[in-house]
Amino acid sequence: MGLILFLTLVNYRGLRYGSLVSRYATSTVVASLVVIVLLGVFGGSGKWTNISVELPTFQAIQGDTFGFIAVFFSAMLSAFWAYEGWITLSFIGGEIRNPYRNLPLAILFGMLGVIAIYLSVNFAYHLVLPAEDLVAVHEAQNKVAAIAVVERIIGPVGTLLIAGLIIISTFGCTNTTILMSARLIFKMAQNGEFFNSAGKVHPKFHTPGSALLIQGFWCCVLVMSGSFDQLTDMLIFASFIFYGLCAYGVFVLRKRNGGPPATYKVPLYPVLPALFVVFCVVLLAITLYNRPGESTVGIALILTGAPFYYFWKKRARTQA
Fold it and tell me: Please, what CATH class does the domain formed by 2-53+84-224 belong to?
């Protein structure tokens, strides 16, 4: 909570300060991950035989197609948290120079960079630790795979190094989320779909100050609510409801407006957005089946906002 409040204040005082924090934190984390990959591949602790070791439990799942698909999607639900930045970039589209060109490029190359980093890191993990050891780390719950890997490479001092890296990563991720997400609240308020005060720009710092403060308060409430893993799983589940609706909205808007706008293109239309919508539906259905508790709570949280949304929407139409 102290970290949230501190970074909210940093971003309250200006976009420049928040972006600098994100830049340095991201650079440190990426450089550290590259070092871990190099140590895993060339440090002498890795064994190519570790990659080919099979788990007996995985063999049991392989025989059941639906079971394998369900487990695969369940694993993706947790992994997608690492890629959440792709959507939040669009929240600051109005503050980016030449957004029609730079925003798609930022999303594309940012996503490719994250994919490359995570594939390399996981390759290094499996090179150093066999799958059996990685499963044991996961089941221990109070252990982290990165710590186990670095301990195997350089000994107990690796625990301190990875702990520091996790702190920096958490710091940077929290800052970026605060910086980006407040812009969504800000725009909602300007559209009459949230508290009017949240749509005002600070006269001195030129930031969405009220939106940042409201967001900071609600984040602290969520921190006190329970497990971080539960929060991220609920977030991913809820997010993909809206991601699917956004992709479906491309079809609706093109039909309503008589075709695509001159400033916006969708590669491989209509196949690509249709596949994304189908993927979202499958992910949501399997998550509801595998994790009914988190899914139900996530849907319930969304529904609690519906009355407020329709109230503000009706008020905005009345005022117009």
Answer: mainly alpha
